[in-house]
Amino acid sequence: MANELTNPILSTRDLKKSFLGVTAVNGATFDVPRNLITALIGPNGAGKTTVVSLISGQIKADSGQVSIDGVDVSGWPAHRISQQGLMRTFQLSRELGGMTVLENLMVSARRQSGENLLNVFLRPGAVKKEEQALAERALEILNRYGLYHLRDSRAQALSGGQKKLLEISRAVIADPKILLLDEPMAGVNPALIEKIGEYIIDLRNGGMSILMIEHNLGIVEKICDNVIVLAEGRTLATGKMSELRENEEVVRAYLGEVINADNGR
Amino acid sequence: MHLFWIDFGTGLATAAVVALAATGLTLQFGITNYINFAYGDFMALGALLTFALNNQALHLNFWVAAPIAAILVGVFAVIANQFLLAPFARRFSNPALTMIVTFGLSLFMANVATVIWTGNTLFYRMPISVDKKVGPFLWSPDVMVVMVFAVVVMILIHLLLKMTRLGKMMRALSDNTSLALTSGIDVRQITNVTWFMSGLLAGLGGIALAVQEANLTVTSAESYLFVIFAAVILGGIGSVYGAMLGALAIGLLTETAPLYINAGYKLDVGFFIVIVLLLFRPQGLVPRLGRS
Amino acid sequence: MSAFFLFVMTMVFYVIVFWIGSLGLDLVWSRTGIPIFAYYLYVAIGAYLTGLFSLPHVPLQNGVGNLFGLDMPGLLALPLAAVATGVIAMGIGAVFLRRLRTDYLAVVMVAVALVIWDFSQNDITLVSGNTGLTNIPLPLAGVLKININQWTYLYTGVALVWALALWWVMKTVSNSPTGRVFRAIRDDSVVAATIGKNVYRYQILSMGIGGFYAAIAGGFLAQLATSWNPSSWAPFEVFNVFTMVIVGGVGSNLGALVGAALLQVLFIQGPTYVASNYLHSPTFETLAAAAIGVLMWLSLWFRPQGAVPEKLKPTKWYLGREPQLAESINPDLTVEERA
């Protein structure tokens, strides 16, 4: 672990955010290692989703630093952070509903010359070629995630599970350095949970770094290499799941609660 | 200095008009949460129905015709919301689309009103009221009645919101719709009551405007729409007491402005306040006194 | 017969002009999602600038005159005025798009249009207040020595050429990756930022293009009327253009034409002609204007996609051929999902 942590892909230092006087994130500090799957866990209200939104720039932090691959991106607007190589998905899927599934992927790709109107009118041939190549690539990705047959459907017509996969493929086409997944398996059927787990492992094996919020500790144990525990807006502990089960503080704050809840059922 | 106080007095009279209309608008916005561009036409309808009852049919005394007309506008507002605006607002999540629908209502009402009442200047059938000196101010007895009436209405609204069960439910619904839904409040009924009051106050505001200007046209209230928006935004959107204070500020500002700038721009003071406030302080200048 | 023919030609002219106007509004509102309630302000600015660019400078005297006049040929004044309006529209966008949420933005846009409308009525130094600009030259009429009727026929043709060119431009823009970014912003501006698009910049670009289209429409209106003043327009007329877009088809270039034609023929120019030539009373015209509101409600309720709906582009459109991958279906998606 030590080697991986000397050069993290993403790190936060003392992130703080409060809404109307209520503190949501209170000094989140952690490093996300390269080429691993890291889980971000914590009890409800621990500020997990807020941390993800602070990192990806949807919400401005009150204070603290975020750096991606050694570049300090604190205070940057969301689109610049994204361009720096960070992609995220949303807990409640946010598809671009009026566009087709294929277009949802195509619009997400990086460095398209046709996104500048000058090129559209002055170099139409080049733009067209690029579009064809991009469509091919998007189709491959859709095929990988089993969405190929839905390519021409309006994205808003997809089912919940399909939208989850669409969000992942929309992030993948941009080839991010770090991928933030906000509960990628929430609300989908058990068979698909397995499948999404495999997809995430495949992405790691392909060299991507992943930080995912996940409630299901069984899944975390199975697919995540590293775990960050958040409680009351602060980083409580980091390490492997097996190590954290031994950590009394963590068990008290979070794991105990889950275990108790499980016993209660 | 003398001129300033006369304009200041006119400002107080305008504030009375704006306060009536602005409380109605802010009540409605607090509960239905979209902006009603037809509100100026609701005001005009009050003034025009009064004209109809006073000059065209029944030939009622103005002071009898006015409250009947205002109640009719309240009923109209309930119908307009129930059968037109609310269904659109439920179906389309984009607030701009509901605004376009209210735009359509404005266009519809203004044109139908033009067909019925023509574009001419109309006058109520009532004794001519001569301006009198009251301290440093210059007011006609009719305008003074309007001002006293507006103050009474404001006090009644205060009592309604603070003292009655209905008022408490209205405030609860305005503060938090989802909470109100779970606490067993009959949302539909409260919404209808709110729209009725909103229409009633719009009608009264329109009539008061016609009295203050001593005449009316089908379009004269429309130009006041954004002045009323200004009062509402100044006081914090959805806040009733804020709207009252906002109305006072806007009334005084627009009427004293001609001392310093071209009188043609007097209403633009209101428009300008709308722009600047929404840009820099959309929560308004007045803390939410009306909120618990 | 000839009077009727002239009326038909004038109506065709209006249809073409409002097609152009609807195309611009469609881009900003239906394809980028900005509630551009100040759109008619851009129409008016385009009209004023076209007038000022093609009129000579008349020093202010007895409340009539203009601050400047460039005395350009009308054919050139029109596009230059449109470019200038596009820049102004981008400036307005840059100020207001940065910080306002949708419904407040809509209100502010109307307020801005109202302030400038009032300014055009009260300020006599810039464009003569309520007198406005008069004697705006008919482009080509002097050179070709033709009368006003002949000019109307000729200029309807010129407008058509402009409209077809602008239709092609709009088609190209909306089919391009740039158009795709606009639509992404419309569908969800947060997601658009998440995938690395500079939302603010694209919104301003959309406003600029929309302003250009509005100004071309406005310039044509001013040239046809040979004058432009505060009673030639009102900020609330934007509602008519919104109705054209909604009835015709949100996000559809051809729909913009259908909407413009429907409104101009059946609800605006047609009723005006009938009212003044046969009924000799403006009531019918006013009722037709009221009916536009009803038309919009019915259209939005029963056919929200409009007469000519926005077309989705299939894979074939992007690839230039049928895709060749074998159909793969994720079997786990067919299992019934948890709620």
Question: Describe it for me?
Answer:
The complex is a heterotrimer of chains A (265), B (292) and C (339). Helices cover 42% and strands 22% of the residues of chain A. Chain A has a six-stranded mixed beta sheet with strand order 6-7-8-3-9-10, sandwiched between helices. A four-stranded antiparallel beta sheet of chain A has the order 2-1-4-5, covered by helices on one side. By secondary structure, chain A is α/β, with parallel strands linked by helices. Chain A has eleven helices and ten strands. Chain A is globular. Residues 288-292 of chain B have low confidence and may be disordered. By secondary structure, chain B is mainly α. Chain B is built from eleven helices and two strands; from the N terminus they run H-H-H-H-E-E-H-H-H-H-H-H-H. With 339 residues, chain C is an all-alpha fold. Chain C is built from 14 helices and no strands. Chain C has helices at residues 2-31, 39-54, 74-96, 102-122, 124-127, 141-144, 148-175, 177-187, 189-194, 199-225, 238-248, 253-279, 283-302, 315-319. Chains in contact: A-C, B-C. Chain B binds chain C through residues 34-35, 37, 84, 87-88, 91-92, 94-97, 99-101, 103-108, 110-112, 114-115, 226, 229, 262, 264-265, 267-268, 271-272, 274-275, 278-279, 282, and chain C through 35, 37, 95-96, 99-104, 106-108, 110-112, 114-115, 118-119, 121-122, 236, 239, 242-243, 246, 283, 286-287, 289-290, 292-294, 296-297, 300-301, 304.
